[in-house]
Amino acid sequence: MARDRFHNVVRTALEKDNWEITADPYEISIDDVDFEIDLAAEQLLAAERENQKVAVEVKSFITSSHVSGFHTALGQFLNYRDALSRIEPERQLYLAVREPIFESFFQRRFILAAVQRYQLRLLVYDVEQEVIVQWL
Fold it and tell me: Which of 29, 31, 67, 81 is most exposed by smallest CB count within 10 Å?
């Protein structure tokens, strides 16, 4: 499976935010269907004494059509979330998007409505700084 252009940027950003990468990629199988989510990470929350677990699918949106990229990302996200809910329901799935894409494309009314309707969790990252800007 080809890695997303900014895969390593997101991995570094997670590590800077004290996440331990536990799988790269995170491979799961449901029945006779295999999936590869870009990253799996865990973080020990000291106050609660339990691990927080995430899976992150990285998307660059570097093609000429952001709408087409969003269709693909949304389809993957929904399939991955369904698969995770069956084998590891405590792991939260996030779609990682670059900050400029979040600030432009993801602010369009239709996209905002789709994010809300399908309950997408977003991880917004800065490519230059290699940091997480926000978790939504």
Answer: 31
